[in-house]
């Protein structure tokens, strides 16, 4: 089979690999569509100490079950599924609390296991045992299905923020997840959602894709004053940093209202030290949350939002043959596309 193999910074090659062997208690699936995550792009641009040389990367996908172990009950061949890629053990303290994405021995497709930038992918028994394998409704397209997992990560982040009626929400970053965060905030009842983005191209696209959003140039010298004008001086109640820039942690906290909530959603490529002012958190009584990955339940919620038409994710997608993964990465870096989706079937 053909697969995209990670060899380090800007080294991603389409190579021939053996089709995966059926894992005991697991399955082998054909990959119909796989989308490029910001984490994949960051590993491509800056490297990753979490991905070994020779790994097939990718974890956002729509799968078609082909070979299924006899131990698995309730699934059929030729059934489409998504897989919540971060799989817990089910035994540790966090898993028993239901926070399986915080498992002490977490394993993730595309990191500890070979991923979805390939024609076929093995689904481990642990994913079935933990309920991470989720059926795709018949009317949901392959592209829609593969875009559900990042939505699940945003749902996880916003579960801590209690966004509601009357809230003003500031999102840093107008990529796919920045826009999804904005849409979810509106669905939760936010009165105003602002996307801060340095790229004029991305601001223009976000304005087109997210109904009702206000966009602001976060690189402008008077950026903070602009936020004040947009909110009529009332400030922002929630800040979400959906970009890999540590300065947004500092600026976001400065802009956050008293008793505000902040999600450090976007991981940083380099050193993560020194961006938060503890005194601001203290005196504002602000709540600052980290977030990592998503659980099976978050993925079910994401798929439901897409299936019921509450979220239109296809407007963000641009499809590429898997062999053109290099071009997809270049287009993402150039901000010519919002979300790259690979067609892996052929």
Automatic annotation (TrEMBL):
Which controlled-vocabulary keywords does the entry list? Oxidoreductase
State the Gene Ontology terms under molecular function.
oxidoreductase activity
Q: Does the keyword Oxidoreductase apply?
A: yes
Q: Does the keyword Oxidoreductase apply?
A: yes
According to the entry, every stretch annotated as the Alcohol dehydrogenase-like N-terminal domain falls at 26-127
Q: Do you know which PANTHER family this protein is assigned to?
A: L-THREONINE 3-DEHYDROGENASE (PTHR43401)
Name the chain's protein: Alcohol dehydrogenase GroES domain protein
User: Which species is this record about?
Assistant: Christensenella hongkongensis
């Amino acid at each position: 089979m053909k697969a995209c193999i990670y060899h380090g910074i800007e080294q991603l090659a389409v190579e021939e690999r053996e089709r995966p062997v059926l894992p005991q208690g697991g399955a082998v699936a054909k990959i119909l569509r796989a989308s490029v995550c910001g984490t994949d792009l960051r590993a491509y641009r800056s490297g990753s100490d979490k991905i070994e040389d020779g790994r097939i990367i990718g974890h956002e996908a729509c799968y078609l079950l082909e070979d299924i172990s006899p131990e698995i009950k309730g699934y059929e061949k030729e059934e489409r599924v998504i897989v919540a890629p971060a799989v817990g053990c089910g035994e540790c303290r966090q898993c028993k609390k239901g926070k399986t994405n915080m498992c002490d021995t977490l394993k993730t497709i595309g990191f500890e296991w070979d991923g979805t930038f390939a024609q076929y992918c093995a689904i481990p028994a642990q994913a079935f045992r933990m309920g991470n394998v989720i059926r795709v409704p018949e009317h949901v397209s392959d592209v829609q299905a593969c875009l559900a997992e990042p939505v699940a990560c945003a749902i996880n982040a916003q579960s801590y923020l209690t966004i509601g009626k009357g809230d003003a929400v500031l999102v840093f970053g107008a990529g796919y997840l920045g826009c999804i965060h904005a849409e979810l905030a509106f669905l939760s009842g936010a009165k105003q959602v602002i996307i801060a983005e340095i790229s004029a191209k991305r601001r223009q696209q976000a304005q087109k894709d997210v109904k009702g959003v206000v966009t602001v140039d976060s690189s402008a010298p008077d950026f903070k004053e602009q936020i004040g004008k947009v909110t009529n001086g009332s400030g922002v109640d929630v800040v979400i940093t959906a970009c890999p820039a540590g300065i947004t942690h500092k600026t976001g906290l400065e802009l956050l209202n008293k008793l505000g909530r902040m999600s450090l959603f976007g991981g940083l490529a380099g050193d993560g030290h020194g961006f938060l002012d503890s005194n601001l958190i203290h005196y504002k009584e602000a709540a600052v949350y980290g977030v990592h990955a998503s659980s099976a339940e978050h993925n079910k919620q994401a798929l439901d939002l897409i299936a019921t038409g509450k979220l239109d994710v296809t407007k963000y997608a641009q499809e590429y043959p898997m062999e053109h993964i290099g071009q997809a990465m270049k287009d993402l870096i150039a901000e010519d596309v919002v979300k790259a989706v690979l067609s892996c079937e052929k």
